[in-house]
Request: fold
Amino acid sequence: MTALTQTQLEAKLGAVDLVEWQKDMADSARLRADYLVYTALVSQLTDNAPASIVLDNSLIGVPVWAYSDVGFYTLTLVGGFPMGKTWIEFPRACLNGGDQAVTITIIQNTANTLEFYVLDGSSNPAELNVNDFPLEIRVYP
Reply:
């Protein structure tokens, strides 16, 4: 099956505004979902805490990023990430801004905080140093 171009999709949908259609689809998916979700595009440059462009957030509050050390970041929301009920989707590896291959590991030790560790190919801590890194966190009842 071949992917449709935007022009082909618009032709099939008629005069539908694609952005509005996508929002409607996301809203209807959220109504069907039996979980809370945080979906964001994460950016982190130099030695600062990551920042997020939040695409969707139905969690109990707004998670807060912190920079702990080179290659170590935390995302905190008190009570927001219940143990055994939190599912996280993200790319496990990427090229950072210096075209350096890095791997990302997320560890959850409490219901409050997710720890993000970034390592280079030699297993040394490295800055994430990316723009628009996709992250989705689901919290099930």
